[in-house]
Amino acid sequence: MKSFSVERGKPQGRYKLPEIFKGLTDSPALVDLFKDETERTRILNETTVEITASEDYMHVSDEDGRLIVGSKHLKKAREQTLYLDIIHELAHVKQFEKGEDLYDPRYGYIDRPTELEAYKLSVKEARRLGWSEREIADYLLVDWITKEQRDRLAQKLGVKI
């Protein structure tokens, strides 16, 4: 995304999404996710981002749908990684607004329908950006799953390892 940029220097606190992540309006992935332009504009303008020291990654609060991002992740992650993370997490914001259980305990992480839906969107966008299958597989390997679980997730998403 040529127009995407990240404001990495904000202190801990709560902000509106465009104060931290700029240039999302024309994201092909978000146009695909939020087909209705009014809904897309509302989500992009009204989603709250909380920067916190206690998180290493990003996730959506199942209490109020805010996006929680760790200050370390915000400062150190590659810009394209943060872009894919935002795509993934905004899929969860949409799910939250529809009343879906983001953390349904009946499923493990890599089998949870909400995660699979969000990952499908970010994998599709990574491919559009020209990421290799290896880069996408590396993106899927997060600290809370094993390599074997990542491989199963990749298989579910059609990512070749």
Question: What can you tell me about this protein's structure?
Answer:
- This protein is α+β, with helices and mostly antiparallel strands.
- It contains 8 helices and 6 strands; from the N terminus they run ββαβααβββααααα.
- The chain has helices spanning 17-20, 28-33, 37-46, 71-76, 79-97, 113-128, 133-140, 147-157, and strands at 5-6, 13-16, 21-22, 48-52, 58-60, 67-70.
- The chain starts with a strand and ends with a helix.
Q: Main β-sheet, in a few words?
A: 4 strands, mixed
What portion of residues belong to β-strands?
A: 5-15%
The stretches of 5 or more residues where confidence is low (pLDDT under 50) are: none
State the total count of DSSP E strands. 6
Pairing-aware structural class of the strands and helices?
alpha+beta
Taking Cα atoms only, what radius of gyration do you get, to the nearest Å? 15 Å
Order of helices and strands: EEHEHHEEEHHHHH
How would you sum up the global shape? globular
**Helical content band:** 40-55%
User: What's the average pLDDT?
Assistant: 95
Q: What is the strand arrangement across the widest sheet?
A: 2-4-6-5
Q: Note the total helix count.
A: 8
Distance between the termini: 25 Å
